[in-house]
Amino acid sequence: MGIRGLGLICFFFCLCSAITFAQAREKIIIDTDVGDDVDDAFALALAVKSAELEILGVTTTFGDTETRAKIVDRFLGEVGRAEIPVLAGKPTETKNPMSQRRYAEGRFVKPSHGDAVEFLLSEIRKYPGEITLVAIGPLMNVGAAIDKDAATFRKLKRVVLMGGSIRRGYGDLGYTAPVPPMAEWNIVNDVASAQKLFAAGVPLFVMPLDSTQLKLDEVKREFLFSQGTAVTDQLAVLYHLWGQQTPTLFDPMALVFVLRPELCPVRGMRIVVDEKGFTREAPGEANAEVCLESNSDTFFQFYLRRVAGK
Predict the structure, then answer these.
(1) At what angle do helices 65-78 and 39-48 cross, to 10 degrees?
(2) pTM for the whole structure
(3) Confidence of residue 276 (pLDDT cuts 50, 70, 90)
(4) Does 13 reside within a domain?
(5) CATH number at residue 29
């Protein structure tokens, strides 16, 4: 075989490898309430730094969804991913302050955004059985999508949810005195939609407070913010706008599970959302796979290496 023949073989091998990689990428849509707590931004950072993911879009939920969408616009533009569609859910009334609102006034911000629920359903129709919905905010868009077209919603590959409190509440870090389960933020802000999700019949993977109270301490922050990359610089800006000291990276665990499920092993459980927003264990057939334990060291080893990478 001549050099030309070898060259053609190499060309086709590389082409086939590229096609296989593209087909193997996980299609995801991220539904977020970015702009209040800062952990949503840290979740978006992990997503854009992960070549294994094909981010079909980012949708915003809860409160001033247009401003949240503008925060996402700017973040994606600043890190070189402005091609990712950003959609806004229906706005809702809330008195919760948006600590990172000023970030939405920068460049790359679009004047308006399409409808999040319409986008979600249209993408599911386009890619039935292929999309992972990563839900890291209150579940208004999810509930609206189920109400609008439950049959299409069931064609999601799965939902990975940061939400709930099964056996541990806020502040129970595993080495403190036990704290009983509480009504967690993403569930209690739209109880009806959470109830619809747990009854939807879609494969559901839940990262509750039990496994997501992961503290980004001063040493880790200094390491991350000193890297000087586009992504870490934007995280530093958003962290300082947030105005508090130690973030808890609740939401990034949902992305970590998509990328490295062994870092948050799940078990089948039946979870019932009561009228007060508590996620109760119940007897009967499992309706969710739930991660009750995670290891902070292995989580941060993966997260920091990935997000700090050049």
Answers:
(1) 40
(2) 0.93
(3) very high
(4) no
(5) 3.90.245.10
